[in-house]
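Ticket #4471: structure output looks truncated?

Reporter: J.K.
Steps to reproduce: submitted the chain below (224 residues) through the standard prediction queue, then opened the result file.
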Amino acid sequence: MSLDPADLADELRLDVVSYDYTPRYNVPPGSFVPIVVERLDDEGQLTRRLETASWGLVPGWAKDTKIGFKAFNARSETVLEKPMFRQSIKRRRCAVPVPGYYEWETTEDGKQPWMMSAAGGGPLFMAGLFEFWKQPDQSWLVSTTILTMEAAGHLQDVHHRMPVFLNRGAVDDWIDPAVPSSNVPPLVESTLSQVDPASVTRHKVGRSVGNVRNDGPELTAPVA
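Returned output as attached by the reporter:
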C-alpha cells in the first residue's frame, strides 16, 4: 500500500480523497486500505471517492468486527448467494488500487513468496465490495473484501486462486452504483471474462515478508 493518492487523483477522476495515506509494504487483513467508490454526496450528486476501509468485510448485521478476519476474500463463484456478500455485491462494489500484492507458492523447501505487480508499471485494480458497520461510539466502520477467482495463465504456477483484476475501463463499470440488481450477475460474468493474467508480472521476494512485523520497501526487492 505505497500508492500516493495524488498519483491516482487524475487517472481515476477522483472528486474526494479521504484515504489516510501511510506507505506500507506488508499489509495483513485487518489493516486499513484504500478503496475507490461512487456515492451520492449530501446534495445528491454522484461523487467518486478514495476512502479508507478496514480489510475484512463486516456486514451491517454482524455482532462485532471479528467476522471480518474470515472475510478478507470473497469467492466470485459464490458471491451472489453467500449471506455475507449478497447485499454488498448488489449495491456496494468498489475497486482496491494497489502497486502489488504477495502470493505464496508451496515448494519442497517451504513457502516461497512472490511479488505480483502490473506489467508495464502503474497500479493494479482489484474488484472489491464494501460495507458499513455502526460501532459502539455510533461512528461508522467502512470495511472491504477482495474478490477472487480460479488462477489462470502463469499465475496458476504460484497459487490456485488470484484476485479479480479490473482493467481501467472495467473499474468504471464495476463501481457504478446505478447498475440494477438484475444486471449484477451479468456484470460479474463480464468482469471475470475480462481478467487478463498477462497484465500481471511477478518476481520472487525474500521470506521475511511472512512476518507482518517486517515492513519496508526492501520486502519487494527481487531475490535469486
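Triage note (M.O.): checked the attachment and the full C-alpha cell line is present. The radius of gyration is 17 Å.
Status: closed, working as intended.
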